[in-house]
Amino acid sequence: xxxxxxxxxxxxxxxxxxxxxxxxxxxxxxxxxxxxxxxxxxxxxxxxxxxxxxxxxxxxxxxxxxxxxxxxxxxxxxxxxxxxxxxxxxxxxxxxxxxxxxxxxxxxxxxxxxxxxxxxxxxxxxxxxx
Length: 130
Description:
The chain is mainly α. The protein has helices at about 25-35, 50-55, 60-70, 85-90, 100-110.
């Protein structure tokens, strides 16, 4: 398998967690890691990609930075949902602290969907299953 352009060994996830392992997105750190060649589709131990983490954290800036760096919008996480599907479900969750942010993230993901690609792709954690 050919190496991807982002195969540098640098993880964008380093900018998404604090020292205790809790989600604490540092968009400046993420930007620096992405500029250094970090894989925007990096996954955590649970199988979620960086984009899933950013959507769950409702960080518009992190979602935008990952998309600008080429993150796959069709990638599926631990629950086999795409980031767009996560954003869709958060919009209607009464426990979501900022419904407008969830809506903004959902619209950003929809705008980034390539033309002619209406549905989510098949990128489960661990790669394709044949």
